[in-house]
Design goal:
homodimer, 243 residues, alpha+beta, Jelly Rolls, 2 domains, four-stranded antiparallel sheet, 10 strands, 20% strand, globular, DNA-binding
DNA sequence: TGCGCCTTTTAACATTTATCAAGAACATGG
DNA sequence: CCATGTTCTTGATAAATGTTAAAAGGCGCA
């Protein structure tokens, strides 16, 4: 198949030209999936991984009882959604679209071949799953150590950073098509409380949300409230202050 | 250097004989580190990874304010503590001993050579960091979706499972040298509340703790209260019911 | 042995967050 | 355009959890 012409953004943009080109060569197809669709289910065998090209996706621990599943990750364009299923061939959680999404498909067999031929590219892919891990740790920190308002501020700050790196946030404005219920699942709080905290942040002059668009009025203040440190994602040397 | 003679247990026991032997060949030394020692610090460059041979270690997001750091992982013998620092050469969190520990040291340069020579062994190592990720997700779920009692039960259930797989829990008895303060940092609750919940679990006939030893009286009940599903760690096909 | 420090335990109280309920706003499909 | 369902918003109330404080237990060390 001819190499698809995909934008290289966000996390993918951190790959070298050579790695990116080689990885693209293993792409079998690009698919579109409508919003709110379950894409992969926990424990079902997987033989491909997905790169999110456009849209927003979520990962959930289904939860032993239906009324309280937990969102464990959100993926933005440029992220590999489930590259961590490559080494083991399975997932421990569900994967769904939030938005309408465009996804690039990478068969594990092709990835395996690539890793054998170019081990350094394998390590580059590995490091993308490692970054995913760092984000998980930050989610643990957020939910475990911060009170509601900090949690919300921290969450919004993370989204702003990741979407900005993906070229999808400008001047503190970006689309985030999550319901307050979704945010509740992500931050471990009730939807009602999300609503109240969002109001407080708005009245604080921090940021506001309107029909899926977030506008940050005072990024520094948001970071302070959320005890947000952008370096968790990038490492100190890589982090460039400002927008 | 001659290949050190280390037990192969827990997560390491899931490696093939060949992978394990090759990996051992890259071990440069075995070191002992006393309890409650900071071993690696966030953002400092790392050129080696550690395999925990004996003892208990913890990983923390230091937390922007000192009074509320969050524990994001606990390592038991057989775990690679910071293998995820190999692809990137840095960590986004601190690493400390809880107990006196014995650790096997693996220089990144030697690991890199190994990955180049035997890419499949590289994938096996990669899959160990992927399992680490799955545990992170489970911690997110625990802290985000479960109430205090469930959180505690779920946490104890995870420790029982992982220590049992490492050959360190028998008949529901195992050593867990954490203070209630530590458990609070791990579960995102105050030490005082940990104490209360521990009492409730004891009075429920579920499990009890005495001077660092946990005894589980009713594992099924503990799993039910904690909504614990052992498959999160192992996958369905690998999970063997019972002890 | 006795002192000092850390951990555990319990109680009282304050605060945060969840739950329930109801109406308003908003979107979707006929 | 209406009808229906979802999401947002707010208030009242309940429940869960945090905080503070104080006493008891354990442990190492002089």
């Amino acid at each position: 198949m001819t190499r698809p012409d995909l934008d290289r953004r966000g996390m993918s943009a951190r790959l070298s030209d050579r790695d990116w080109a080689s990885i693209l060569d293993t792409c079998s197809e690009v698919v579109e999936i409508p919003a709110r669709t379950l894409v992969s289910r926990r424990d079902e065998p997987l033989d491909r991984s997905l790169l999110l090209v456009e849209g927003l996706m979520s990962r959930h621990v289904p939860g032993p009882y239906r009324d309280r599943r937990e969102m464990v990750a959100l993926e933005v364009p440029g992220d590999f959604v489930d590259l961590h299923s490559f080494p083991t061939g399975r997932l421990d959680h569900d994967v769904s679209t939030v938005d309408d999404c465009r996804l690039a498909v990478f068969p594990h067999s092709a990835l395996r071949k690539l890793v054998h031929i170019q081990p350094e590219t394998g390590i580059a892919l590995w490091s993308m799953t490692v970054t995913d891990s760092a984000i998980h740790r930050y989610w643990s920190f957020r939910v475990g150590a911060l009170p509601a308002m900090g949690r919300m501020a921290n969450f919004i700050a993370e989204m702003e950073l990741r979407l900005r790196l993906a070229g999808l946030a400008h001047d503190g404005r970006f689309s985030l098509p999550l319901t307050q219920s979704d945010m509740g699942e992500a931050c471990g709080m009730s939807a009602v409380h999300i609503n109240r905290v969002l109001r407080d942040l708005r009245e604080d002059g921090c940021c506001s949300i309107q029909s899926g668009w977030i506008e940050i009025h005072d990024l520094e203040r948001l970071h302070r409230i959320g005890h947000f440190e952008p370096t968790f994602l990038l490492g100190e040397q890589d982090y460039i202050v400002g927008r």
